[in-house]
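Service request form, structural biology core

Requester: graduate student, group of Dr. S.
Request type: structure prediction, single chain
Budget code: on file
Notes: please return the result as structure tokens.

Sequence provided:
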Amino acid sequence: KELQNQKFERNKELLLLKLEKDPDNPVIYKELYDTFSASNVGAEAFEYAYKGIELCKKYNTDYIYAFYHVLIFNAFNNNKYDEVLKLYDEYFDVPKEIRFGDRSTDIEVYGYTGLSLCEQKKYSEAYHMLKKCRERYAKEKYEGTITREALWICRQFNNDKAIANVNLFYTECCIQAKRYKEAEDNFKQNPI
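Core staff response, request fulfilled:
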């Protein structure tokens, strides 16, 4: 525990020095977010994430997706499903100067949003989100188009095993939304 605290303090000091020299660099804010988040200093971590988002919008940089991804990931893991839905809206409302088509992180955002909707028992909406998650994953897998952020950001929905879990929730959503034929077809195509 003491060693972790020492590492946190060292990293924090080094990053704050970097920030003094380059205050408009969103990458440093992401590193600060990661450092504070890993040390369970959540409030400050989120301040750095939101400041990073502001800078990304100011300078039109696609690094914004790294921030939204970690915020959605943390909101989901802390059972803050309404926050996931709010962040979903923000994620897809990124200025067009930054957003250039589909992104690998879209898979994760659709996945977390769909699972959040499942947890809220909004099965019809969850069905649509999980369907998008599955379709985007299938498209990238088929085309072999893994964008660079998928390699260092995506954690949960970037492999076949993870998508198998999405398929289970998707089947549940189909049943709950009374889409029985789709549930049956999904089960046949993706047996457990």
